[in-house]
Amino acid sequence: MQQIGLNAYESRSYLVLLGHTRFKALELAARAQVPRQKIYEVLDSLVEKGFAHVVQERTKLFSAVEPTLALRGYLNRREESLKQEIEEQSRNAVELADELSKTYAPADGARGNLDYLRIVSDPSQTAKHYRLMLQNVKTEYIEFSRPPYAVDPLDERLVRQAIERGVKCRLLIEQGTLDATHRKRLEEYAEAGVEVRESEKLPMKLAVFDNSVGLVALLDPVLTRPTWTAVVFEHPGFAEAMHALFHNHWKSARKLD
């Protein structure tokens, strides 16, 4: 009962009430081991939460509400209350983000020593960076694609939009990772103009845009449950090196059957 939101005094008082038709407050306090000065506060809370009834006779008496009704009603009210609380927090978060963004903006265009590299471990943030770069690519987009996918390029309509803008797109897929659905989508991409090849093994996940920006995702081999950490870069020299690595694998890869 404490796990669903009742405290120890409320839980013990309700359990005692369940076994009796009705109780006076001070009688209940002794049975439930609740301090006499606390019992009225506890009973008022049980009534408010829907676990007890008040029966008014010469003196005020209390009785338990049937457990199924009490629990269902209490949880429904808590669910509604939590929903309203989350909605309110979401509204506040949007307003707060707007205010804090004004402070976060870099002053006078100043750059730190490593502003061209960002470490990202949250998959949703990796996806955000990926989509932004894919949305802004102008001439060329290349990618090592291997599972698990933070963002699956096969499902990205942004790739199609890049092709329509005249962007040269090349996807290098690791062998043995495609199911029937992905293979069919790759065929559709190929028809739209995306160049697709298959390599026996890829060293990492990699995407490079316009030979200047991109991201590298590396698997952490130390953790018991391996996770991917992405390095987002905006550095022509680093991009050129990754571009060369891609084309080294691309030359030895074969076309997808």
Key descriptive features of the protein:
257 residues, alpha+beta, Arc Repressor Mutant, subunit A, Endonuclease, Chain A, three-stranded antiparallel β-sheet, 8 helices, 11 strands, 47% helix, elongated
How is this structure best described in words?
By secondary structure, the chain is α+β, with helices and mostly antiparallel strands. The chain folds into 2 domains: 2-68, Arc Repressor Mutant, subunit A; 117-255, Endonuclease, Chain A. It is built from 8 helices and 11 strands. The protein has helices spanning 8-18, 25-32, 36-48, 67-104, 123-136, 157-164, 180-192, 236-252; strands at 23-24, 52-56, 60-64, 117-120, 140-145, 168-174, 195-199, 205-209, 213-219, 228-234, 254-255. Strands 4-10-9-8-5-6-7-11 form an 8-stranded mixed beta sheet, with helices on both faces. Strands 1-3-2 form a 3-stranded antiparallel beta sheet.
Instruction: State the end-to-end distance.
Output: 60 Å
Classify the helix fraction into a percent range: 40-55%
The strand order across the widest sheet is 4-10-9-8-5-6-7-11
Beta-strand percentage? 15-25%
Average of the residue pLDDT scores:
83
CATH topology of the largest domain: Endonuclease, Chain A
Total helices: the number is 8
Shape: elongated
The helix-strand sequence is HEHHEEHEHEHEHEEEEHE
CATH class of the largest domain: Alpha Beta
Major sheet: size, sense and barrel closure? Answer: 8 strands, mixed
CATH architecture descriptor text of the largest domain: 2-Layer Sandwich
| Low-confidence sequence ranges | none
CATH homolog superfamily of the largest domain: Endonuclease Chain A
Tally of strands: 11
C-alpha Rg, in Å? 31 Å
Structural class: alpha+beta
Number of domains: 2
